[in-house]
Amino acid sequence: MEDWFSRTQQLIGFDKLSLLQQSKVLVVGIGGVGAYAAEMLCRAGIGNITIIDGDTINKTNINRQLIALHSTLNQPKVNILAQRLQDINPELILDAQYQFIEKEEIDKIIKNNRYDFVVDAIDTLSPKIALITACLKNKTKIISSMGAGGRIDPSKITFADISETYHCGLAKAVRKRLQTLGIKKGLKVVFSTEQTERKSIIRTDEERNKKSTVGTISYLPAIFGCYLASYTIRKLIGE
């Protein structure tokens, strides 16, 4: 009888599937982008996943976030996603942490856990920079998501080094902050070359560490998440 991972094994072979099953991956930020990345990693057979997020689900998440339903409102995102991932793979080794990670904690998390790969889906600048720099310092492989909001064309999504990004406000902020730390390149990212719809941006200081909110469409964050998962999986199996 075929098992649930048999089609993956048929595609990539037993040895590469075994590599995925033995891999340990961290996903930080499990909103519109990160939750899709985590689920695609789980469905591909990654055997050990840590998810970290300190947010709860609200109504504005429903238009794009995998775990956002009327039945899950006000619940921690990590709890809902953890249930999904363990229902997909009951044998998954899963660490679900309901917290906003602070700069002081991130270096210790990366240094002590020896992740095979880190997926950065954080949408606020300070913890994002802290995670990126901790991974680069500890030589931990990382793929980072830039901004998925304010865009509608999936054909404009691509991979690049952070030094090669443009038309993305978040990427610009990340570049500038990294440059002050002496880092000009060496970070692989997913970003969109599509120019942001300026009318979609609302300036606000209400949300944690955010200076604005950006309008989004249902499919763009999901595709960003799939790009993150694709890069991670292909690197883990040596593609």
Automatic annotation (TrEMBL):
InterPro entries recorded: ThiF/MoeB/HesA, ThiF_NAD_FAD-bd, Ubiquitin-activating_enz
GO molecular function, one term: tRNA threonylcarbamoyladenosine dehydratase
GO BP terms, alphabetized: cyclic threonylcarbamoyladenosine biosynthetic process
Domain THIF-type NAD/FAD binding fold: 10-238
Species per Swiss-Prot/TrEMBL record: Coprobacter secundus subsp. similis
Cited Pfam families: ThiF
Protein name: tRNA threonylcarbamoyladenosine dehydratase
SUPFAM superfamilies tied to this protein: Activating enzymes of the ubiquitin-like proteins
